[in-house]
Design goal:
homodimer, 338 residues, alpha/beta, Rossmann fold, 3 domains, 6-stranded parallel beta sheet, 6-stranded mixed beta sheet, 12 strands, 47% helix, DNA-binding
Chain lengths: 338, 338
DNA sequence: TTGTACGCGTTATCAT
DNA sequence: ATGATAACGCGTACAA
């Protein structure tokens, strides 16, 4: 109905007090006598007064909000990270704006521009391309910015990530322990830092075990999705059994699930014919028909730590940029333990 | 570095023009001569000017943004709906604020209050409790509000949903066609409208086929999650084979995946010992080791339609509230076709 | 074509 | 304890 908007001035008039008093009721209730406070509060309720956040932000110079630009909202990994961020934001009395770049640079750019215009207190982002110049521009202009899930060297900003070299190592050491001597690394594009690091860690473990490079083959994929996993599964299942790797280490769980599904439907038994290790340990990993061995990352903690870093950068003049690295953990399940 | 913020006034000074001219360059570029425009644009670039959205919104009386309050950001179903909303928002030149109530009323309330304070142009919401009075209050105060995934009768607001009665019917008719005569409905809490409707549709199909009520048992769950599905699976697998239903219709895919996993690990073969139908057809449904038969909902279209309704309500004085109902579709896969 | 001035709703400072 | 008033940055009507 009433498209008319109620302002503090209207409340003041209705309550028969001045504008300043209404403001005091809202912001320093102790500075106003119980009687007038009561009057004002009743007027607010009667008129349906709603604070105008735009005006507050304008006055304050910044919004009471944080923002997280997700790389892929469809990936439960990132929604878990977002949960961690939100819990920290809530504790700080801030709201959280979520947006989704969907791995596309132009969408990411659009979101970042919007957020800068909103004057959010801080931006958390899992960037499509971590060394995008836009990030530096934003940070240079004064918006606290933290990179999530990716380490960037240099002192330009803070970042939080999980040790992907170690994660790759854990996965492959586990496979070697289980007796595998021909392993495929499934993932891509390799230009994605996480993917490259996981592969590097995998190779290091392989070499440390004295195995030859050729037996750790790389099956490169276009994307880290279930569909890409399926197509990798086709390629793998198409190989003659003698040359086929006995195990696959996938750069994330979505790939692993796609691979698992395709391999199963091609008649391979998991883990007997093909063992599979995923990465991220999303909830669906444990729920797969063959529960998936995976490298678990402390997602919520990652998000919380990131949020605390932006907040510190915004509030603490003595803030120093830092790189926080969490430690992953292997969770062994049926897909390798048959 | 520079925590100093650049305003249009600064740009005007730097470019040697007046504030109004800078504004014109931004909002009506045609009303300004190429020469001065050039000067102003260079000044903006040099100073790193970023428009202040708070000031714009204050002036305009509303934000250039829509908001979607999701019921469960961890459920891919809702992120797909969000994608549809975003595409419509983008087409209208608006940004989209995503928030997640996580099925908790107090979180939903908090988000709604924030959004009202932001003066967003419209709120889309999949509510925890569809008849919450808060929704009416917000609508009454003038914020266009559309209910997503739930029909609410009465003319208070618009809503978009998928026909859950039909969906339940499709699922059970399919099972009857496949020869099943003892079926379990798995879902809950039944107080959730969608769940109740799907059950009602299922019962209708059951009765239409002349089957007796007792053979359509209800396995009630606490939540629509993978974990709840697993525990339902335990209960089901615990029944003696003679009494056990030969098929389960789950109120959503997460339940179905949990059930699938638990039943498999309890030694049941899918679909031979137990056929399973899910609901939503999320990507993981097709990717399960036994690909899941599911009832598909047009998620992106749902989101787009909802967004168009809020926009219409905001822009079109002749707007009339309406209830849009989409039609679901059964996608048959191995979990019932074995 | 360009400049001036006012108001959007809020907060904070300064008087009273 | 309360009231008056000046910003915050922007958009626009109006004047020049």
């Amino acid at each position: 109905m009433a498209s008319m908007t109620v302002s503090m001035k209207d409340v003041a008039t209705a309550a028969g007090v001045s504008l300043g008093t209404v403001s005091n009721v809202l912001n320093r209730p102790d500075r106003v006598s119980p009687g007038t406070r009561e009057k004002v509060e009743q007027a607010m309720a009667a008129l349906g007064f709603v604070r105008n956040e735009s005006a507050r932000s304008l006055r304050a110079g910044r919004t009471r909000a944080l923002a997280y630009v997700m790389l892929d909202a469809g990936n439960p990994y990132f929604t878990d990270v977002a949960r961690g961020i939100e819990s920290a934001a809530e504790a700080a009395g801030l709201s959280l704006f979520l947006s989704n770049s969907d791995s596309r640079v132009e969408r990411e750019k659009r979101h970042l521009e919007h957020l800068e215009q909103q004057r959010v207190q801080g931006v958390l982002i899992t960037p499509v391309v971590p060394d995008s110049a836009l990030l530096d521009v934003i940070a240079a202009r004064g918006t606290p910015l933290v990179i999530v899930d990716r380490i960037r060297e240099g002192d330009q900003f803070c970042s939080v990530a999980v040790d992907d070299l170690l994660g790759g190592r854990l996965a492959v050491e586990h496979l070697i322990d289980r007796g595998h001597r021909r392993v495929a690394f499934v993932g891509g594009p390799l230009s994605i830092g996480q993917v490259g690091d996981r592969l590097t860690g995998a190779r290091a473990a392989w070499q440390d075990a004295g195995l030859v490079d050729e037996d750790l083959t790389v099956l490169s994929t276009d994307a880290l999705t279930v569909a890409a996993g399926r197509s990798a599964g086709e390629r793998l299942a198409g190989l003659p059994a003698r040359r086929r790797p006995t195990a696959a280490f996938c750069a994330n769980d979505l790939l692993a699930l796609g691979l698992l599904q395709q391999a199963t439907s091609a008649g391979l038994r998991i883990p007997h014919d093909l063992a599979i290790v995923g990465y991220d340990d999303i909830e669906f990993a444990a729920a797969a028909a063959v529960p998936l061995t995976s490298v678990r990352q402390p997602r919520q903690e990652l998000g919380r730590a990131a949020a605390e870093l932006v907040l510190d950068e915004g509030d603490n003049p003595a803030h120093r940029h830092q790189q926080v690295v969490f430690t992953p953990e292997l969770v062994a399940r049926s897909s390798t333990l048959g």
